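Researcher: Go.
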Amino acid sequence: MKHFVSVVIVALFVSACYQQPQKKTVATLETSQISNEIKKNTYPFSNVSLYDDFSNELILDTLQFKREAQFSPLYIGDEKKTIKLVYKTSKLAYNGTEFDRDYRIPTTSDIQIFIDTTRTIGFSMPMAVSYNKTEYRTNKKSYPVFIKNTSNKIHQIGIGEILYMKTEAKDSTGNWREIERDFMYFCGTGLARYYLNPNQIAITAFRQNYGRFKTKFRIKFGSFEHPIYSNEIDGYLNFEL
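Model: Structure:
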């Protein structure tokens, strides 16, 4: 009996020494501990699985007041069960010029914007380097943001490397305030335009922020007469509004 126990212990020791973890070639994107049933019944786009090719550690961002907004597209196309995210905007094949599409700027009833706080993804490459460097995933924890064209028209949703979106937060009096400023191109000649066909989706990233002051966030699409807003989410700021 003692001999049998010794053999078992030795076998377990050898197995532990030689067992190596399998190397993952595709990063699994973090998902909050929430039941599939709740996700299915509560959250839009919960049937869409997201993945990327990176495994670098992600950390919380530190939001600076009135920083330039950067909602770069990570995907534009049909709504599918599995979608690969691209962090280098120039790799997206879905673009064109303003002259080759019969489009319009969306209004409130044309698109749906949803910040999904049940899972975490990375953030897109900085715009200053995305054209001349190999793709990588910026190490900022982010929520995926889904934009869906719910109309029967084509809509222009962005230009260059950005979508027409900014972050708003509630101040201490309960009013919504823009906490980011528009990114401005010195010249728009030759810049790609991003479009959504009917029922297509775009995915971008909303950075998760570190801070001491709890507040609510939402995304504002456009600066037009009738802007479009996302759902509201809880979050933190490192400054008080």
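Model: The helical segments are 2-18, 36-42.
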